Amino acid sequence: MTPIVAAAVLIAAITHASWNAIAHHIKDQLLSFTLISGGGALIGLAAAAFVPFPAAAAWPYLITSAALHVAYMALLMRSFTLGDFGQMYPIARGTAPLVVTVLAAVFVGEVPDGWQMTGVVVACAGLVGVALWGIRGSRPHWPALVAALATGLSIAAYTVVDGVGVRASGSSLGYIAWLMILQGLAIPAYTFYRRRSELLTQLRPPAARGFFGAALSISAYALVLWAQTRAPLAPIAALRESSIIVGAAIGALFFKERFGAPRIAAAGLMVIGIGLMLHTN
């Protein structure tokens, strides 16, 4: 992984945590994800006119990924409804790298070396520490934890699918544009079915924030997809989860959720893991 690719993934991590914070801040989660999904579809439509059309070999992956992204959005929405941002976001993101490592080794043939595998494990241990700090001494809210873990599994699934699909597409920009179009229709259609005549009135107050979140979401994932054409999937999946530090900081600063020394120590462990993942023989 070159420094440019690593920098792109880190920028994507910051951008990703930011759009998730915007989504969490809009109290009506169905409206929030309607704006982000619908805004993404509109941006994708505009971009599709100026970027190469994905190759035929990429379309099975695009369709599969779109379905996985809709499931991911629904699960993330559920997680944010049930739990704190500073805990749900880390758990959702923290489960993905190890799963991606296994899936990439099995289906893509990308087997990490000893240093990289150690780095993935150490980084994930740090992420779990950040996620689970605060549960001790209180009864875990299992529905929220299960929703966050399921969100992480969906992230791992679409990461591997898109990692293969974008390489077959011939254009990372074309792939992301059509992915946003395909995945962006389901939640707005469901919301229209549920809210109907009230929808436009309800959408106006959070519209600007929602569309800004959509722009951040597309930017973050476009950077990741580009990186996946330049480096193996597992290290990218693990490095992008540095967004957990940004998410925890946002939870502490803007949502007034506790951070504390244990999470700082766990975040430091994650940084060590990232350094190991970037080690090359």
Features:
mainly alpha; 281 residues; 0% strand
Task: Summarize it.
By secondary structure, this protein is mainly α.
Mean pLDDT, to the nearest integer, reads: 86
Low-pLDDT sequence parts = none
| SS element count, helices | 14
- The number of E-state strands comes to 0
Strand-residue fraction?
A: under 5%
Biggest sheet descriptor: none
Overall shape = globular
Residues in helix, %: over 70%
- Which structural category fits the helices and strands? mainly alpha
Distance between the termini: 12 Å
Question: Element order, helices and strands?
Answer: HHHHHHHHHHHHHH
Description:
With 281 residues, the chain is mainly α. The protein is built from 14 helices and no strands. Helix 4 (85-94) runs antiparallel to helix 6 (114-132) and helix 8 packs across helix 11. The mean pLDDT is 86.
Task: Give the SSE map.
Layout (H helix, E strand, L loop, with lengths): L2 H23 L3 H20 L10 H24 L2 H10 L1 H13 L5 H19 L9 H28 L2 H12 L2 H10 L3 H5 L3 H22 L4 H8 L2 H11 L6 H18 L4
Helix pairs in contact: 1-11, 1-13, 2-8, 2-9, 2-11, 3-7, 3-8, 4-6, 4-7, 4-13, 5-7, 5-12, 6-14, 7-8, 8-11
